[in-house]
Amino acid sequence: MGYTIDIDTGGTFTDGFVVCGSKVRTVKVATTPHDLTLCFLECIAAGAKAFGVSAEDFLFDTEIIRFSNTIGTNTIIERNGAKIGLLLSEGMEGLAPIAKEGKASLVEPDMVMTLAEQVDERGTVITEPSGKQVLQAAQTLIDRGARGLVVCFANSEHNPASERRVRQIIKREYPRDYLGSVSVFLSSDISPRSGLAERLNSAVLNAYIHPKLARLLYKAGEDLRQRQYRNTLFIGHNNASVARVAKTRAINTYNSGPAAGLLGAREIGQLYGIENLISTDMGGTSFDIGYVRNGQASYALEPDVEGFPCNLPMMSILALGTGGGSIAHLENGELRVGPQSAGALPGPACFNLGGTQPTVTDANLVLGVLDPDFFLGGSMQLDVEKAQEVIKRDIADPMGLSVPEAAWQIKLVVDAQMGAAVSGVADKLPADADPVVVAYGGAGGLHACDIASASPVKKIIMTPFSAVSSAFSSSLLDVGHLYYQRINQTFTDDMDSTSLQQSVNDMMQEAVRDMRGEGFTADMLSSELQLFIQAKKSIQTKQGAQAKPGGQELLLHAPTDFYQQRESFDRLIAQAKEALELAGEDPQQGVQLVTVALMVRAPVPHFVQTELSKSEVNESEAIKSTRPLYVASAQGYVDAPIYDRTKLGYGAELKGPALVESDQTTILVPENWELVIDQYDNCILEEVQA
Predict the structure, then answer these.
(1) Every domain of the chain and the residues it spans
(2) 63/291 Cα distance (integer angstroms)
(3) pLDDT digits (tens, 9 = 90+) for 68-81
(4) Is this prediction's pTM over 0.70?
(5) Quick check: helix, strand or coil at residue 595?
(6) Bridge-based pairing state of the strands 459-462 and 436-440
(7) What is the rounded distance in angstroms from the CA atom of residue 437 to the CA atom of residue 55?
(8) For helices 384-391 and 360-367, what crossing angle results, to 10°?
């Protein structure tokens, strides 16, 4: 049996989860922001070293590599994407994502041009774009430096013919084999859903990050081939699947790591029959929160991508600028933490890489939560004096506090911020749900209990792989492709399903072709439909009152052939009405089936968690030493036991204050909390009575 490798790059560290049969190794290396392919290869080298083989032998025997990355996210945040030219319908100029309302632009004002074309709301082409005008506009934008063109016309979700005509005209003039060829992106290809500004933003964001992502991912693939890897490099998508580079749209990689983490949290919840939970991922740069409600992972139909509303559905993750590298500072005399981060470089002051400002990691070091000689298993030494120095200078002295008190205040502030965010997410769960958190991330164990104490949560689950949880969760993903078709039909029990069936058949044919390119035959595929529905509303027109779609769209999951089975059809209609009513919509005027999506998946090797036998090792035997740990109730340091995580087996129990250390993370068990190791080797943390 060969290896499976799952890699996730974060803002500070790049994590690896490597499996060979029953053997699991986790690795963590510093992220190299200037070139993410470097830390990608370093993570692979670390995995090979963990198994005691050369990188070439390791890759030669590897069955699959799945890679989630932050290239797209970082490109949008840092505003260093491609120079984009826009071709829009007349009158759409005001929708272009240029600098306004304090937001940095994705497109420069002089890179927006309009064309005389018109398609009505029924999809009828009123005015076809002229070839001469298209070429003149395209040439102007290319001369101004455009490295990609985005075409977005009003009502193209109803009929994309005019957008496709523009691309055909441009490509006829600039064929792919010309060095001067530019990529042309159509908004109708990216999303067939309504929302003109949202569809435009989705298309622009995709084009903006495309060149950098394509360059780096193809380079990563070539680097692997040169090192004896013979199989496909799969890229993580934000719809909880993976696909090869050639079938990956850039926008689909946005937030793909946290999306995988949320799926992993749902899988962990299923071990315990938990259908409502919150996932929290605290790394060096951010704190990401998702949730699972009634077994379904949180999903956004109109996600906000770094301040730009889009209509391309993706798993919903709330991201806060609070991580281990978040910088503590005073603002008008008040202590603040984040959202600015020291990142991987220069990093926290205690990293000794040039950081000069106090961070959450510096505070944890001063408080005794972190061991300066055992950070990442001792692979990195931390400088306590540097941490004390910057906290004293910037926080303690100005606030009239001792250094430990200032460090404790930093931790209190950041935990309160994250606790408030968790409380907000808990409100989205059913009223009778007893919130459970699946906590992960390299810094997750340092803060999980105190975050819970600042929220309604009283129970936490942490896997042995929590420090590399997005990479671990990636190991649960299958190859998948998602296809959309606009339907726009009234959803009733007597609905003519002919056009729906034709749309599903068309999407399935495309899926079979794509999956064949991935190496999978039709009989290996599984599929499901996603139905986008809206309530109809009574609207007054010149012809009188008419029921037309209005209000928010909702998503339902359905069997691929539901329309061929009366019982399934009726059940879906009832579910649609119930879902709309729960969302505050009135389905009495009818329900509209607006769009249908087909998700097709093919199985690839997964990690399988096995149950443990009861451990015969007493937890006291896992204590490797003690360390002074700052405890608020004692107003100072107490000697806290330090447990070796690898020696805590099924059945081990311990109470705080205590610390549990592994090579990649530390779990802080505060006062009034207890930790138990269960049959899945997971840590179960619960608050107990004082």
Answers:
(1) 3-76+215-253, 80-209, 259-323+414-474, 327-410, 479-602
(2) 32
(3) 988 888 788 778 89
(4) yes
(5) strand
(6) parallel
(7) 37
(8) 110
